[in-house]
Amino acid sequence: MKILSWNVRGLGRPRTVNRLKNKLRAINPRILFLMETKLSAKRMEKVRLNGGLYLGWNGNALVNLKSFSSFHIDAEIHDNENEEVWRLTGFYGNPDGRKRNESWELIKCSSQDQLRLWVVLGDFNEIFNSFEKKGGRRKSERKMSEFRTALDDYSLSDLGFVGRWYTWERGKFLTSNIRERLDRGVATFDWVNLFPNYQLEHLSHSFSDHCPILLNTISKPQNVPHNHIRHFRFEANWCLDNSFDNLIK
Asked: What region holds the Endonuclease/exonuclease/phosphatase domain (predicted)?
């Protein structure tokens, strides 16, 4: 199953909408989570829209909506491919750094659900470590630590990625260019065990300062032996170990 998450930064212009349609035709996701659409609910179909968030899907019985707010949409996924029910949360971290802890409290409230097969996708508006940012002022170590702690406390691990390193970029010139990995997927150990061949990819983009992220729960290509597949995984916490630099060298 393909799940696309994207901070599109507005869909008010017909040209932007047409570009999005072309992208969706090429990818053909089963579930679509959009952020910062800046559209009214009347202009969306099969949707829960609040604060610019949108969740769409293909298949009437696929999604059971549980809750939503300006910063999240929570749903049960009735997956007929493996006959399991698991949880998907589309997440948008508060862009106001002073209110970022409110976002982690939202994850805390969501974590109290008993369904342990859980994946969270979206724009968290925060990074794990300083190496996930290039250019601009240094990020607050305290805020990055709070982000890591929040995910650890609720048994959510970073899913890694393939493709370009950063998911957000601003500034066309080298002196003013800033890049960060703000968009990601995190999941519980049980969810990862359910989909051991998953792949999360950072896709190219043309009309937003965020790139779309595509989660494919079953990424194994047909007619290709499994042992020929090489997915790169990187655990951000490795960089916190004092021996990491020497080990790489």
From this structure: 4-184
